[in-house]
Amino acid sequence: MSLPNSFRLLAADGTARTGVLETPHGVVRTPAFMPVGTAGAMKGIHWREIRESGADIVLGNTYHLMLRPTAERIAALGGLQKFTGWNGPMLTDSGGFQVMSLAKLRKVTEQGVRFKSHIDGAVLDLSPERAIEVQRLFGSDIAMQLDECVRLPASRDEVDRAMQLSLRWAERCKRAFEGAPQGHMLFGIVQGGDVAKLRRQSAAGLGEIGFHGYAIGGLAVGEPQDVMLAMIEEAAPLLPQDRPRYLMGVGTPDDMIEAVKRGIDMFDCVLPTRNGRHGHAFTRRGVINLRNARHADDPRPLDEESSWPPARSYSRAYLHHLVKAGEALGAMLLSEINIAYFQSLMAGVREAIAAGQFADFRAATKAGWAAGDLPPR
Amino acid sequence: MSLPNSFRLLAADGTARTGVLETPHGVVRTPAFMPVGTAGAMKGIHWREIRESGADIVLGNTYHLMLRPTAERIAALGGLQKFTGWNGPMLTDSGGFQVMSLAKLRKVTEQGVRFKSHIDGAVLDLSPERAIEVQRLFGSDIAMQLDECVRLPASRDEVDRAMQLSLRWAERCKRAFEGAPQGHMLFGIVQGGDVAKLRRQSAAGLGEIGFHGYAIGGLAVGEPQDVMLAMIEEAAPLLPQDRPRYLMGVGTPDDMIEAVKRGIDMFDCVLPTRNGRHGHAFTRRGVINLRNARHADDPRPLDEESSWPPARSYSRAYLHHLVKAGEALGAMLLSEINIAYFQSLMAGVREAIAAGQFADFRAATKAGWAAGDLPPR
């Protein structure tokens, strides 16, 4: 069954694409990086800075939010946007991935997954139908199907079983999503681990069911980058060309550039905020570790050409001091500097594709990272 | 010896006063509340929010900054303002109070205090001369004399000894401050514990030495409020009327209102940020504990009439959720909401004094706190 399409491709350059995705809460320019606001908040960043950084859309984690403050409470308070004050597009995952990584005593059956909350030990069930119900209570602009994501390495049989189960869950999610308000979207998720044939089977199966968009899941879970890229190359060509494609949980700037080259439109990752909290800055000269003593007396900014004011105005010496002293402001500044860098990278990608110069952009960007940081002063 | 006076009284209402203090980095409207940026940063607040909250001046802690990143490094990087990016007036304490409360193996002699750094165990000396040297390296707009602040309760002899020592250190600090650049100021500190006669002796002695301004120290260290206010009443009338008076480490909104009534012009305290990190909001209806379950489903803002946008726009339910989930954003929002409340209180105090309506303002403000929070919904 074909669903309405809110995605419009504006330009392609090879297999790289740029477009716009209309959601009930606004327009998303693609390729897009979605900052992760796990429990209804960005760690250490005000919402206005997320907006100013150039982010069109953010991601919320269903697992965390369904446990606390709960989906029913968020619905009673007017939905996730109203609750958080982020007045823009929001995608929520299905909760499945975090159930696997955070919850205790999880048990997967055909029906769904039963688990114990890591907060209070309550036993809860998450079925495909409940995953959709929860995300509709949130009022998510984009909901994700429930899937089972196996840890790699895993046997081929195990990967096959989880992929097939995820396909059956995809169908149930689609049925549960019927009657969702106009403009709200549901994405299916390609599984199949590191097995090319299973990835192709999953992508084709999801395309037959029909979704508003398609994610590729179960990657960036420790496998080498070439395996991840090979799996994208298997799946992407089999997904409907006119729908958005979202690579879940990815990734590093280099991962994103390579995935865009292979036709990916959307990304999410905790890397910019997590690494910011650990004193690492993503820049056009690669990753800079502000803990390093070489910065202690350095009056130069992180990047005098950054689009983000704090990356131009604060000295490396001050950022080094904040990180060494454990000051919250250090984590706050580096997290937002990193989010802004990811956004400026996506803006550059979009412009380059529109201009038919993606190959040059990719080469120049990688050359900048490879050249590395400024010499010490 | 009389020093140049950068303080101008604009109006008085009883013993309450309002004025302006000119510093090399800008004008401070008094009564003023100085947020505390211990180690060169506000905990969880961006500098621009400190500025937007209405703060004219902030305080830095010499003890922390002299240990890390060190005074010499800050000087080489252009001084505290340039280093931190706070482009406004800054007062630094002398380091003495934190040596007493944080350092290990401290030993007070006539010469100064020898202590072990709580960071790396290095043995350091802080003399009156070194305290001034360090603060001049910082480029502080207002430096404080080194003093000895005894813990209460203490014997009268002990309080007397520390007060007399502080007076001798005050003279040495004044000498060490000679030749400081135009417009930079040095404040003496009244000591004397809870002994009225010693407070009077200290205030009179400092007035004879002559400073740009005068602080009252060694209060708000656990004694009842009436003892603190009684000591202010002893000291304030003996301090030069045309100079600013600063009550160190104070305090609660009620403490500040009562101290303003008794002629105090400046305050500093970690309360708004520390209590913000613990989920407490200061409001015109008193202190609200956002951890309380009564807020979990409450869509109302903290204070719909607040001058600070987040206090009007975020629901109590969201703030409650952030606090319960341990999200950094909760501490960030409540810290800035509290700083903004302290600033709006000072703005109200200044206006009321200028209008000759301080008594009414004080009564109405206290009535608001006493009436308490809105009834639960």
UniProtKB/TrEMBL annotation, chains A, B:
GO terms for biological process: tRNA queuosine(34) biosynthetic process. One of its GO terms (cellular component) is cytosol. GO terms for molecular function: tRNA-guanosine(34) queuine transglycosylase activity. InterPro entries: ArchSynthase1/Queuine_TRR (IPR050076), TGT (IPR004803), TGT-like_sf (IPR036511), tRNA_ribo_trans-like (IPR002616). Its EC number is 2.4.2.29. The active site is at D93 (proton acceptor), D268 (nucleophile). Keywords: Glycosyltransferase, Queuosine biosynthesis, Transferase, tRNA processing. Pfam families: TGT. Substrate binds at D93, S94, G95, G96, F97, D147, Q191, G218. Residues 15-366 form the tRNA-guanine(15) transglycosylase-like domain. Pathway: tRNA modification; tRNA-queuosine biosynthesis. Residues 249-255, 273-277 are annotated as: RNA binding. Belongs to the queuine tRNA-ribosyltransferase family. Catalyzes the base-exchange of a guanine (G) residue with the queuine precursor 7-aminomethyl-7-deazaguanine (PreQ1) at position 34 (anticodon wobble position) in tRNAs with GU(N) anticodons (tRNA-Asp, -Asn, -His and -Tyr). Catalysis occurs through a double-displacement mechanism. The nucleophile active site attacks the C1' of nucleotide 34 to detach the guanine base from the RNA, forming a covalent enzyme-RNA intermediate. The proton acceptor active site deprotonates the incoming PreQ1, allowing a nucleophilic attack on the C1' of the ribose to form the product. Homodimer. Within each dimer, one monomer is responsible for RNA recognition and catalysis, while the other monomer binds to the replacement base PreQ1. HAMAP family: Q_tRNA_Tgt (MF_00168). This is Queuine tRNA-ribosyltransferase. It comes from Afipia carboxidovorans (strain ATCC 49405 / DSM 1227 / KCTC 32145 / OM5).
